[in-house]
What we know:
44% of the residues lie in helices and 18% in strands.
Amino acid sequence: xxLPPAIxxxxxxxxxxxAFRRWKRPRVRVGGTFLTSAGLIEVTGVExxxxxxxxxxxxxxxxxxxADELRKLFRGDxxxxxxxxxxxxAGPDPRLALGDDTALTDADIADISMRLGRLxxxxxxxxxxxxTLRLIEANPAVRAxxxxxxxxxxxxxxxxDVRKLKKLGLTRSLEVGYRLSPRGAAYxxxxxRGDR
Length: 196
């Protein structure tokens, strides 16, 4: 489930407790979690509702001013049901804590290297992980489009690859561009020393 950054931040602060979505069937389940720009969000409830019975009060709980404003945002087939999804902040993005961990053991380094090797082997454009980490290390806070162009790649596939590195705790997204996380910097330093 995607939440705009402002809504995700409002869930994290407790100002927003629900979202409304038009889906053929529920795409989330109670107790499930998903990552947002504000951290981990838990689904606390899912129920089908009549969109015409959504009140202004319910719309405000979803971060909007009126029910009419909310209904205008519904996408998809108008015959599909609308669901009220309860939301609660479940904690910071676990990738941040992972990215702050610089106490890498030999097993950690071997595990990271194995995972990066797996990404390289699965790639349709060849090995890219090491080059991308070094590119980000040398060019922090540079636009993704510029980084991608510098290595002859398109922006969107490049960004997808960087998200894979972020999932491993090796990079951080900035307002513009990226930087290595402390873990990513420690990993590259260990590889340079031959600690693998």
